Amino acid sequence: MAAEIIDGKAIAQRVRAEVAADVAAWTADGRPAPGLATVLVGDDPASAVYIGGKQRASAEVGIAAYDHRLPQDAPHAEVEALLHELNADPRVSGILLQLPTPPQVDGPALTELIDPLKDVDGLTPLSAGMLAKGRPGLRPCTPEGVLELLRRHDVALEGAEAVVLGRSDLVGKPVAALLLQANATVTTCHSRTRELAAVCRRADVLVAAVGRPRLVQGDWVKPGATVIDVGIHRTVDGLVGDVDFAAAAERAARITPVPGGVGPMTIAMLLRNTLRAARLQAEAAAGAPAAR
Ligand code: NAP
Question: Do 126 and 116 contact (CB within 8 A), yes or no?
Fold first, then answer.
């Protein structure tokens, strides 16, 4: 294997330590600890595990965690009322509604009700619009994690050919927008893209977020490229990504493993966003222009 491994677990630990130090400095000045409210509707075991992880990680860095759990049959209006309450609660800096929600609850519509200053998932239309316009704002956590991995490995983005596989609101589109903001030349691919392998072979930076196990073959990778694999799938061979790791690592210069690549970055970026949200609200309360 030729490629250097991008160790997302180690980088996420460093980011978490930095956030812990920044939170300590924030509270040392007499301010209340930032607060993260998580809202989980229903009893999906995977979602409960994610929420538990976010709660524990918050506590570790000094962020106050508010854990709201509603039953599987909670009506839409009840979740909506809770979100309004959290929007108004000054102890809450960030709000995260865990998706997917049960069918009677329109999760994407509810996400849009979150106060943009508390939008630590970066998924409200305002946050998405600010990103599209290249204006400061809260960014979605997984895409921000992808960029952080590239930054920490000094991957040259300016003028680089970047290819993003996937165009979801959650991952593909924001990753492409962040790469564009970093002055890469960005191509976004999706299920109707022709000659996918040939397009990928142009990439200096290849980001796979397609949700298809090992779709990206080794010979899709340009020799010397940086490969970031966002996918995560439980298979009979264990956890795998959207990239055929062993074959891609023969050609890439750098590559993220699955697990231990992008995955750990998501929570680290959520913590950083929560502190950033607390700062934004303090600035807004002081009447300062929104600088992020
Ligand atoms: P998604 O909403 O299902 O979007 C998948 C995208 O890939 C769509 O744009 C789709 O195109 C495209 N696509 C699907 N099959 C394709 C194919 N054969 N060729 C080219 N494009 C294809 O998924 P997502 O939410 O973005 O997530 C993507 C992956 O990242 C999943 O494996 C997910 O589990 C993982 N993920 C990981 C984290 C983390 O923290 N590590 C966070 C979020 C997601 P169309 O638009 O044309 O349908």
Answer: yes
pLDDT confidence of residue 289: 61
Q: Which of 9, 190, 199 to mutate to test the pocket of ligand 1 (most atoms within 8 A of CB)?
A: 190
Q: Are 32 and 287 in contact (CB under 8 A)?
A: no
Q: What tokens were used for 279? A: 């700062």
> Which residue is catalytic, options 22, 54, 173, 242?
54
**Is the Cβ atom of 172 under 6 angstroms away from ligand 1?**
yes
| 19 Cα: distance to centroid of ligand 1 (angstroms) | 29
pLDDT at position 126 is 96
Backbone phi and psi for residue 186, each to the nearest 5 degrees, phi listed first: -110, 130
Q: Which residue from 98, 111, 168 has its CB within 8 A of the most atoms of ligand 1, so it is best to mutate?
A: 168
The tens digit of pLDDT for each residue in 51-79 reads 999 999 999 999 999 999 999 999 999 99
- Nearest CA to 231 out of 201, 263, 265 is that of 263
Catalytic one among 22, 119, 121, 242? 121
Mean pLDDT score of the chain: 96
In order of 22, 185, 205, 266, 285, the CA distances from 156 in angstroms are 28, 12, 9, 22, 38
Sign of the CA dihedral running 174, 61, 241, 233: negative
Segment 188-228, tens digit of pLDDT: 999 999 999 999 999 999 999 999 999 999 999 999 999 99
